[in-house]
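Students often ask what a holo structure prediction actually looks like on paper. The answer is less mysterious than it sounds. You provide the chain, you provide the ligand, and the output is a string of discrete structure tokens encoding the 3D arrangement of the protein together with 1,3-dihydroxyacetonephosphate.
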Amino acid sequence: MNIALIAHDKKKDDLIRFVLAYKPIIEKHSLFATGTTGKRISEETGLSVHRFRSGPLGGDQEIGSYIANDKMDLVLFFRDPLTAQPHEPDVSALIRLCDVYSVPLATNMGTAEVLVKGLERGDIEWRGVQKERED
Ligand SMILES: O=C(CO)COP(=O)(O)O
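The corresponding structure tokens follow.
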């Protein structure tokens, strides 16, 4: 599965802790991230991460393009709901595309925990089945 990992600045420490806690599950998948988030994840967890541009510089839109092209299976986006983001339209567009394409999306740690446990149990394998049918 292709997993997108994204965190706003005040949520980056939480995402790093989350990735470390669930590393045995997460490391079995291909990881993608916006620029600064990806840099921190690879430096602090040792995992290999494909990095897009930083969120405010188009990274959210790059991940959105992967979603629109059926190349992202799960999105863990630790949003900061208390800080205004200069690229709020990009954040909304990314979330909207997850809804358009039924891509499982967590916008906080509580939901991310449920999704990652589901990932481990194989609950998201319908994504692969759906893709095979479309090929
Ligand atoms: O702003 C972001 C998501 O909207 C995250 O971008 P960075 O990972 O580059 O900080």
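The chain has one domain: 2-134.
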